[in-house]
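In the previous lecture we treated proteins in isolation. Real proteins rarely work alone, and many bind small molecules. This record shows how such a complex is specified: first the sequence, then the SMILES for 2-acetamido-2-deoxy-beta-D-glucopyranose.
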Amino acid sequence: MLLWGCLFIMLDVLLQPEFRAASLPLHMDSVIQILAQIEQEAPILHPTVPGLLLMSGSPIDFFQHQLLSGVPSPAELQLDLLGPELRALAISLIQHRVGSGQEHGVVLAPDGSTVAVEPLLAGLQVGLHGRRAMAIPLEFRSSPSEVRDAHKEKGLTLAPQVSTTLQDVGDISLDPTILPDVHANSPTSVDNLLAVTLARALGIAFLPGPGTHTPKGLGPDGCWDEISAPKTFSLLSSESPSALTVAFLNGALDGALLGDYLSRGPKPHSPLSHILTQYYGAGVGGDPQFRSNFRRDNGAKLTSQEALAQQVWGSLLLIQELEPSHPHLVNLSQAQLAEVATQAAKEFTEAFLECPAILPRCRWEAAPYRGSPRMLNLPLGFLYVHHTYEPHKPCTSFSQCAADMRSMQRFHQDTRGWDDIGYRWGSRGNLPLYDIQKQSFVVGTDGYVYEGRGWHWVGAHTRGHNFLGFGVSIIGNYTATLPAAHSLKTVRDTLPRCALRAGHLRPDYTVQGHRQLVHTDCPGDALYRHISTWPRFGEVKKKA
Ligand SMILES: *[C@@H]1O[C@H](CO)[C@@H](O)[C@H](O)[C@H]1NC(C)=O
Ligand SMILES: *[C@@H]1O[C@H](CO)[C@@H](O)[C@H](O)[C@H]1NC(C)=O
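The predicted 3D structure, ligand included, written as tokens:
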């Protein structure tokens, strides 16, 4: 009886909005909690929940208003049901911005990635009401500034009181491959889902700023103050960073993927709180690959680089007309907009979508490096493949992979007296302690790559060769079995391709197994046999 009493008091405290808001960490679970509360207390609001939250941030702009369907009118706003504190938390979560070295409006997801909430909600809102092609009014397409001048002459102002409402020209939820005008010259419509999540933000980030010719482009990743109770997110590069951060792109991709999923899925939908719990946890719709960990692979299936370029161009055309005073867009010609869009789609595809997601050291809570690191002289000519041997079990979740990383680092630093994370020798290799092993990168089976020494610092993974190549280790014992297909693809294709593009690897780079250079069984018989079939695999030239 006493026990029950205590439990009720505890529950009571937990359910106080004030208590929750004060204690809610910036974690995806908090977003899910906010959604769940609205869904539970006002089921009738279900289709408008994301729009409702978006409006609670800043007044949504004209662009969003035109492209997000089903957004409630201000009179319908019922955010008070969240209570003042939870509402304040929602508002702070929803406004994405970067400034003073920090990024706001982002949360830590269970997969270890950081996600911007605003583009995620925009994608969900579109998904609930159907992904549509929205026609760009004809006069916008011809020559935007002329149209504007003509309107001005007639004493008309286009924005923000544009009388035109974008026309819905079709349901594209069933076959996203039939995107409008992929091959036409000038876009005649935009896909509302891609426009509100990704395309507009991409276009703006790649516009040359006023008075400068260099666009900001893709932005940095960052570090949480505390992984267990995240409150602030500091960017890894703070010199006027682009708002198109890794977290923003994660949120935009999640918004686009979940919006597409909702748009195709059977109705009525499950509550959003359930869908997000699955997507960030166990996989949506019974598909283990459809989850946040694999957002880049799934995003690549959602649209092609060419189709995305058209969407970015279309979005820029729309902003130019809807927000004529936009400082970056004044006086840009059609041809310039098309060029910006092409560049944005190319960078996004080649430097983000088709690259592995690398979690920086701070995100697996690495202990600081001991000793004095030396810089690599890039580009390098080799990629050395390792397995960790121990831990022998492939890690399939962020919490497990990050724990493996920490335990390897602890073992190597404390037990072995090494500087940093390395790998353990194979059964045959009886290596002396001075053979310090520090990997450049470690690949998990959770879809992520974990940063060890990274691209710029000399590792100690392959004795006698640490200045010549990067060491990449896959967590697990691959003596008798192979790593997951996704991990193999990362080491064979995506990681080297992106390193090549970034100038970290030489165009003629070679892949080798650790055992080719050092007396060891690493990377395990099975994995070694497999990598010896790769096109970039190279025999070691014997010294004459
Ligand atoms: C845009 O063009 C107009 C007329 O050609 C000019 O007066 C104005 O200064 C230009 N604005 C910018 C920001 O370049
Ligand atoms: C690694 O795998 C091999 C082959 O299955 C096995 O004999 C060995 O004991 C394993 N080592 C560890 C540390 O799990």
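Summary for your notes: Residues 68 and 302 are 19 Å apart (CA to CA). The chain has two domains: 2-133+188-314, 361-531.
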